Amino acid sequence: MKRKLPLAETSGMAIKNLKSNKFRSLLTMLGIVIGNASVITLVGVGRGAQNLAENQLSNLGANVLFVVPGNNDTRRRGVAFPKNLVLKDAKAIKEQVPTVKRVAPQISSNEVIQTGSKSTSSSISGVTSDFLIVRSFEIAKGRFINNQDTKGAKNVVVIGPDLEEKLFKNREGLGERIRIKDQSFEIVGVMKPKGAVFGNNQDENAYIPLSTMVSRITGKDPTYGVSLSFISVEAINEKSTKAAKFQITNLLRQRHKIIRDDDFAVRSQKDALQIVSTITGGLTLMLAAIGGISLLVGGIGIMNIMLVSVSERTEEIGLRKALGARRLDISTQFLIESLILSSLGGIAGTGLGLTTVKVVALLTPLPATIGLGTVFITVIISGTIGLTFGVLPAKRAAKLDPITALRSL
Questions:
Q1: End-to-end Cα distance, the chain
Q2: What pTM value is reported for the model?
Q3: MacB-like periplasmic core domain location, by residue (predicted)?
């Protein structure tokens, strides 16, 4: 006569069987361990990349706009940017746009900097005194470029802390002289650390008066005059950035006599954050999918081992059925075994993944992180995979004919 076995008894039998095959059980769990660890690590790294980009962009300022030459089409095709964004445009924006507080035109060029026997390549930017406030930079030593430096086109330079370290090692750079092209410049200031933006280390840059940049480094464009690399614009406040963007666009379209496509673009921190979030979000999703494939492979491994286990335990299953065990009892035992393997593997993989995420955050610039929600979902998925891939072996075990199974004894 068949009788219903208590769940506790069925679970005990499942645990006993797994203990009797410890090595095989560990190997079976390994796929789930690797899968869980992969998902958590890859998602953590993806979020770290997103956090890093967002942290860098936040340094730009919430109410700062960037006017750059060229439109989206030229940027996508890699066409050389036009030189028609000029100093007069920056002056017009400052004078005619009511929602704008400050304007910082900039010309940038990569040049070789020399001091004594040492030399290095660095980004040199010609700027005005407003650059420091608009871009939220700070001075660590000395001073920044002032209006007198710009009016007199003086040969003075302010350098980043990393550039100071490169050129002078443990010596003080303030007051020393460096050569840019064939010109000698006096270092009047050293910046506080600012960090990198889009792979450009701002702490290795150097800044000279915009007028000096034009007269001694880059020269004027014969067609457009003083061509700018871009213009940084500080709106009155964060709420006025949208209006400022609209007004700047209209003003430059009128000045450049544009009828169709713009030959410039106005970008805000919000625009950049949206683009970065889209890219890094897609990257994180892709990494999670790669980790998910590892979990799927782990589930297939559980199913394979459980099917082998069914074949090996034919006699046991036949004997239990002959003694009154029901199909449900047999299938439940195999499902419990699958669930235990996948759950333990999920917990171990989660621990490994969290440890890896912490190591990545400590040893790399990526602020890798993972939310508790993601961890919980990953563990649930691993358990679900165990149940799902344990169904086929459980059904096969439950359908075994006890007479046929007992004949093999």
A1: 22
A2: 0.65
A3: 25-250
